[in-house]
Recover the amino acids of this structure.
């Protein structure tokens, strides 16, 4: 089972050949590897699900909100343990 944390792409980081993006997760910005989604052409404002530092799926804002609500039901926020 994969637990994906939703995050919003803030920017694709320059000098990383499109492999890293700064992603906002519950207000905290963190670098995320987006190399697995290179065909998606991610840009600021896009939403992704993150698993162990990798963006594994591009999702809509609605799907991101759903994932966040599910995490809150589990009693955890998206910022981590």
């Amino acid at each position: 089972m994969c637990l994906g944390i939703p995050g919003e792409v803030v920017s694709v980081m320059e000098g990383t050949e499109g492999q890293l993006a700064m992603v906002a997760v519950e207000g905290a910005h963190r670098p995320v590897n987006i190399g697995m989604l290179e065909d998606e052409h991610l840009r600021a404002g896009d939403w992704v699900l993150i698993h162990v530092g990798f963006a594994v799926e591009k999702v809509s804002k609605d799907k991101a909100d759903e994932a966040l609500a599910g995490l809150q039901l589990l009693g955890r926020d998206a910022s981590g343990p």
Remarks:
- The chain has a mean pLDDT of 89.
- The helical segments are 61-73.
- The longest strand covers residues 5-12.
